[in-house]
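Progress note, sequence design subtask.
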């Protein structure tokens, strides 16, 4: 207001709120579309990352085989890959889910693998002295010890899932907040674009806190629950 900046360049908070209320139904619909993509991409990253991390930590040969492939998948820019995925998979939601998965799963794999590999040797030797099988060692020693690292990876992955979903929606979508931002700025509806940006920020914060609460409820003994940063 002081510098008389045009609303189409930088709308005031009151303008953003007014535009949000006027288009509340549309914003809600696009928010649900983005949430669906985020949830499916994040779920895919969890389902694939956990067993992949177990394979990586099972032997040095497996680690040397899988790690280069993981690095290769991360060296490809997702914005450049998204149009190719549209050609391969079609103009549906699947390419968006795949892009979201590719953005989110790498830090989760690394976090889980690091947690599984950081078990103290004396705990491993204790399990062996009781003739624990490989499965028992994994479920009773390695996984419980890796819980803080696993949830650290989940917190990063769930926030990156929001980023991945929006990147995918920029390339191929007919719904979602990323698509809504593109269409709003094309018609100089900057207030709506800022509203979508704020919703995306709040979405990332809420999803992050959901993972924090899940860790507290499911694993109250986790050392991370005493960390003030996680509170």
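Output:
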């Amino acid at each position: 207001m002081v510098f008389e900046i045009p609303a189409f360049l930088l709308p005031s908070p009151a303008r953003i709120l007014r535009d949000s209320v006027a288009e509340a139904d549309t914003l809600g619909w696009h928010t649900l579309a983005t949430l669906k993509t985020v949830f499916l991409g994040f779920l895919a990253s969890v389902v694939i990352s956990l067993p992949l991390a177990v394979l990586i930590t099972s032997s040095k040969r497996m680690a040397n085989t899988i790690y280069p492939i993981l690095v290769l998948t991360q060296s490809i820019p997702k914005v450049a890959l998204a149009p190719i995925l549209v050609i391969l998979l079609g103009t549906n939601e699947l390419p968006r889910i795949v892009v979201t998965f590719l953005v989110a799963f790498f830090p989760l794999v690394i976090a889980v693998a690091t947690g599984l590999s950081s078990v103290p040797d004396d705990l491993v030797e204790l399990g062996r002295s009781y003739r624990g099988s490989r499965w028992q060692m994994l479920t009773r020693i390695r996984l419980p010890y890796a819980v803080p690292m696993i949830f650290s990876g989940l917190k990063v992955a769930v926030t990156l899932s929001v980023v991945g979903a929006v990147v995918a929606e920029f390339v191929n979508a007919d719904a979602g907040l990323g698509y809504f931002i593109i269409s709003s700025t094309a018609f100089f509806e900057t207030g709506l674009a800022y509203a979508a940006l704020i919703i995306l920020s709040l979405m990332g914060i809420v999803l992050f806190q959901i993972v924090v609460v899940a860790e507290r409820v499911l694993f109250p003994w986790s050392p991370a629950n005493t960390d003030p940063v996680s509170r």
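The first helix runs from residue 13 to 22. Work on this subtask will continue into the next period as scheduled.
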